[in-house]
């Protein structure tokens, strides 16, 4: 055995303890750590892209990394990171994720590990939490992009079946032109269309309701009536990026009955609102969708990477993703045979952090995260609306605050970008740039389990301080 490997084998407990100490140090300083490190700290140091001949061993490598790069790590796991709908990591999920790497299980159904059974249990618990019916199956994927990819891939197969084509076998050329209709789709869906061979040009934007990002069902019906024979996928939003708008799913279901399309619901973070009786009505009817996307590394606060794709068309899913090989489990119609249900063959045991977090905190724990974040987002919105130099661009519907700068002299986008640069340098809060109805805007998304009242006070102080600070 190589000397460094032999040394690390003998010092395994010390290595793990060193990691524990580094993690404890990081978490203890999370509230003070900048949410956006200086750009200089985010750069690789000279020579660190070159591979050494002998290596230095695990402990020295850990020291080397932490001493040189700890300042470049964001406090994105903390309570005032409001960018990109990034959740934190609950203690139970973190503990599980450490175990995932230590036990290193492949989650495919191989009959030599409990991993597949735990994943199925996590899916069943999540369905119960979100009010999804028994006829949905679900699988863990890396994120909303892959969950949307899977839902649209199954939808593509369903369209082919309706038109007498096996797309998985014959390809998209056999099916021909497909239309994909949405009002405010997430960019990951467009990426999925590109990967699936449907093409980004297949996406056609339908008009929204007045002063909303939600689809106008009447406009959708007019389009469907004008193209009655075109194979159609409809992408519904259950929580848009800028304003957390929800499409009227019951109206879309009624249109599906008339026009026969595949209905995919992108509920990457908004779907978790179904855990709260106060907000579950926003998702009325999603139980009858054909496929659904939900993220776990957002509002469920498990580590990257973790999302779930749900569908009620398991047989079609296996037609798309089955993997025939003499040395692997043969395809059969069961919801835990993950080898045949997603793009990945080998998969890390990413279900364990989700399962352990649900076991640790239960229905009421998730509900508390959701309802507290919504309350705090509304508090942040109220504070901004009452502050000079800010304007809310939409009501705070759930957990995202979308706002713009007022009293701007000159270029509005440049003013917005300068404000965000000052905010990043301040380090207390992280928000991200967006555009809303053609206007340069800023968004703050609250999904972290640790965010509390004092964080909103600190956030408002930082926003007000940076608003009129000289560039």
TrEMBL record:
UniProt keyword terms in alphabetical order: Aminotransferase, Decarboxylase, Lyase, Pyridoxal phosphate, Transferase
Pfam families referenced in this protein's UniProt entry, alphabetically: Pyridoxal_deC
Cofactor: pyridoxal 5'-phosphate
Modified residues annotated as N6-(pyridoxal phosphate)lysine in this record: 298
Entry keyword annotation includes Transferase: yes
Annotated GO MF terms: diaminobutyrate decarboxylase activity; pyridoxal phosphate binding; transaminase activity
EC number(s) recorded for this UniProt protein: 4.1.1.86
The keyword Lyase appears for this protein: yes
InterPro entries reported in the protein's UniProt record: Aromatic_deC, PyrdxlP-dep_de-COase, PyrdxlP-dep_Trfase, PyrdxlP-dep_Trfase_major
A Gene Ontology BP annotation from the UniProt entry: carboxylic acid metabolic process
Family per similarity comment: Belongs to the group II decarboxylase family.
Protein name: Aspartate aminotransferase family protein
Species, as recorded: Serratia rubidaea
Gene that encodes the chain: ddc_1
């Amino acid at each position: 055995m190589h000397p460094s490997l032999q040394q690390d084998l003998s010092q395994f407990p010390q290595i793990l303890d060193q990691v524990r100490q580094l993690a404890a140090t990081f978490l203890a300083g999370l509230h003070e750590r900048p949410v956006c490190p200086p750009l200089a700290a985010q750069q690789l140091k000279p020579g660190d892209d070159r591979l050494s001949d002998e290596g230095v061993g695990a402990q020295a490598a850990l020291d080397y990394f932490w001493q040189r790069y700890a300042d470049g790590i964001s406090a994105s796991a903390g309570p005032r990171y409001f960018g990109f709908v990034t959740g934190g990591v609950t203690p139970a999920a973190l503990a599980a994720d450490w175990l995932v790497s230590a036990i290193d299980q492949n989650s495919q159904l191989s009959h030599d590990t409990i991993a597949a059974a735990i994943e199925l249990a996590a899916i069943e618990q999540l369905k119960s939490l979100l009010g999804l019916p028994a006829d949905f199956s679900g699988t863990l994927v890396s994120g909303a992009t892959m969950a949307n990819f899977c839902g649209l891939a199954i939808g593509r197969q369903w369209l082919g079946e309706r038109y007498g084509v096996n797309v998985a076998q014959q390809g998209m050329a056999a099916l021909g032109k497909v239309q994909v209709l949405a009002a405010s789709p997430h960019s990951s869906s467009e990426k999925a269309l590109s990967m699936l061979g449907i093409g980004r040009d297949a996406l056609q934007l339908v008009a929204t309701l007045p002063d909303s990002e939600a689809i106008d069902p009447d406009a959708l019906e007019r389009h469907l009536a004008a193209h009655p024979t075109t194979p159609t996928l409809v992408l519904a939003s259950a929580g848009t990026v800028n304003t957390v708008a929800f499409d009227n799913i019951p109206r879309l279901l009624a249109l599906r009955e008339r026009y026969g399309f595949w209905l995919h619901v992108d509920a990457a973070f908004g779907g978790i609102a179904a855990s709260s009786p106060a907000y579950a009505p926003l998702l009325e009817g999603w139980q009858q969708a054909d496929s659904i996307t939900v993220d776990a590394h957002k509002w469920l606060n498990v580590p990257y990477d973790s999302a779930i794709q749900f569908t009620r068309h398991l047989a079609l899913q296996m037609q798309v993703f089955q993997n025939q090989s003499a040395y692997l489990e043969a395809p059969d119609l069961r919801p835990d045979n993950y080898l045949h249900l997603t793009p990945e063959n080998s998969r890390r045991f990413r279900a364990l952090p989700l399962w352990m977090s649900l076991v640790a905190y239960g229905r009421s724990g998730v509900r508390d995260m959701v309802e507290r974040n919504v309350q705090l987002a509304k508090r942040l919105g109220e504070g901004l609306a009452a502050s000079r130099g800010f304007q809310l661009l939409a009501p705070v519907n759930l957990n995202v605050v979308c706002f713009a700068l007022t009293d701007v002299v000159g270029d509005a986008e440049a003013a917005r970008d300068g404000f965000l640069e000052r905010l990043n340098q301040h380090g207390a809060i992280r928000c991200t740039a967006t555009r809303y109805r053609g206007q340069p805007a800023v968004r703050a998304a609250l999904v972290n389990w640790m965010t509390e009242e004092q964080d909103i006070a600190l956030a408002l102080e930082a926003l007000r301080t940076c608003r009129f600070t000289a560039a």
